[in-house]
Design brief:
With 184 residues, this protein is an alpha+beta fold. The chain is built from 6 helices and 8 strands. The strands form 2 sheets. A 6-stranded mixed sheet has the order 7-6-1-3-2-8, covered by helices on one side. It has a two-stranded antiparallel sheet with strand order 4-5. Helix 4 links the parallel strand 6 and strand 7. The protein is globular, with a radius of gyration of 15 Å.
Length: 184
Amino acid sequence: MTDTETATLAGGCFWCIEAAFEELDGVEDVTSGYAGGDTENPTYRQVCSGSTGHAEVVQVEYDPNVIAYEDLLEVFFRIHDPTTEDRQGPDVGSQYRSAVYYHDDEQKETVERFVHNLQQGGGFDSYENDEIVTEIAPLDTFWKAEEKHQNYYDKNPNDRYCQFHAEPKVKKVREQFSDRAATQ
């Protein structure tokens, strides 16, 4: 058994983010869920209403001996737009916000430094003219989404939403991070 660490990320629809992270070597599990809100044990329908305060998130269990937290952040910031508030693609509302929920002080410092460097133009994309609005907050509680939302892209490859929104993210990871792609 390897030692694993956890990253909790929100970047729009969790189906899309989950599918992209499952492509990476060192990622052992990705679970869709909810975080950052007030409602206990929220349902998908409640979160989609925007009334719970939760964001759709993924929890990424990874082996830090294979893939670093910084690598996960690099993928995360390439597969979504961190400059749009409460929106990713066609999905609008605070439940689709960009957020990193850190698990400890080390993750907090790492993500703050990472975002600062991106904002200063020191990263792979330059956000010097566009403010990064990604929320950086401690993870309070992670609520696992209903089973039908787990591995949604893999279970529903012909779903039109997945084809238009998840597939491009998966392809981007396969192309831009081929050196970190899991062997299929």
